[in-house]
TrEMBL record:
Keyword Acetylation: no
Species in which this protein is naturally found: Rhodococcus opacus (Nocardia opaca)
Domain Metallo-beta-lactamase: start-end pairs: 17-226
PANTHER family the UniProt entry points to: METALLO-BETA-LACTAMASE DOMAIN-CONTAINING, METALLO-BETA-LACTAMASE SUPERFAMILY PROTEIN
Protein name per its UniProtKB record: MBL fold metallo-hydrolase
Domain of life: Bacteria
Protein's UniProt keywords contain rRNA processing: no
Amino acid sequence: MKPIEIADGVFFVHSEMVNWVLLTDGDAVTVIDTGYPGQRGDVEDSIRAIGRNPQGIEAVLITHAHVDHIGSAQYLADTYRAPVLVHPDEAAHARRECHEVATPWDVLSNIWRPGVLPWAIKLIRLGGTAKYGIDSPTPMPVPGALTCPGAPVPVLAPGHTSGHTVYHLPDRGVVISGDALITGHLTSPVSGPQLLPQWFDHDRGMAAESLRIIGELDADILLPGHGPIHHGSVAEAAATARERVGASR
Ligand SMILES: [Zn+2]
Ligand SMILES: [Zn+2]
């Protein structure tokens, strides 16, 4: 999983199961999402692959507190003394004071669908069934750009989880969309801009509404939490995903 420099100082790391993003400013690094627990070495390797040292991690940001996005967050925080910044609306979920996750029952009742069983087996191998949270997430100051490398602007896009946050890089024309807008998933029969299958979302109606929020961001590169990079108007990508939600009702 070789990082791709998609814009100046913006690196996308795509893996089969989940993606993450690195933002750099000189030697300093912001990590946005951190893979599954079993991918911590991959996250560190991705930082070395772009010529930086994990010691240079200044901040760890998460889009939301599902295990495939926070799997290395606590480790990176402890090892490199970097804060884990989360949107205030996602902080309780990150501390596991509430649960907004597909349950084992959700998985089992969908296991007959194409792709779900292979996905579940890979998830188990990557430590995805661990009871995993973040001990002391730092609520990020909102609204406005953060001061960490890349100066990402957090934008609340709730639904997948209550505090799901996308990150806009207005100067680079990039949106990092986490699971609020994806382009593919092992459990999805279609490719291109879409929401995850419904049973992954905490509040499907709100997730569909949040596509309007994402569609208002001025950008032409979408870096999703799952699936490949999408080049082209993010507004159009969000509209495509909205149409697909309508068609699946
Ligand atoms: Zn998720
Ligand atoms: Zn995810």
